[in-house]
Amino acid sequence: MDRPVTLTLAIGALSPIGFLMLKDAINILLLANDSDFGLSFADEEVANGQRFSVVTTIPAMIKAHSKLGYPAVYPCGAFVYRKKLGSVFGSLFGAEFSARKGDQTDRISVGMDSPNSAFGGTNSIFVTGYDAKKAADGAHDGNAEDDTAQTSHGRITGRRANKWGAVNYGFAFYEA
Description:
This protein is an alpha+beta fold. The chain has a single domain, classed as Cytolysin/lectin (Mutm (Fpg) Protein, Chain: A, domain 2, Sandwich), CATH 2.60.270. Helix content is 16%, strand content 45%. The strands form two sheets. A six-stranded mixed β-sheet has the order 3-5-1-11-10-9, with no helix packed on it. A five-stranded antiparallel β-sheet has the order 4-2-6-7-8, covered by helices on one side. Strand 9 (146-150) and strand 10 (155-160) form a beta hairpin. The radius of gyration is 20 Å and the shape is elongated.
């Protein structure tokens, strides 16, 4: 076989892998705190990809005040996890948060998966009152789309904005 034919065959065989290596996969989570508890980032499980942005604390909700005329304020934190450059795998993570109000404590975790496959894969979000690993495992392979979990002092609700695509937008709300 001459070189041009061999080179063409090699490029043709590697192009699906090259496509996956160049294709992006991002998880973007917006976590809103609708509680009297302050949230602190406690732990993470990054199964695939890498962390780009994490907020370490989200203060408690500020309740509406009718005499002063201001509405309720729901503090939020944005979290971004992205696949590693040149990797064929997407982005899969679980993040755990500690909630504290006086001597009361609670735990919440959110997991998100933005797979990186030739067919796009199914984005997912999974919430739980347990650890970061359980959240990542629950989100793996598109097993969860919209989810609610009870915790010891409240509940966490997660919503996935889009089923397919390279960017998985998720919204989570903690209520206590």
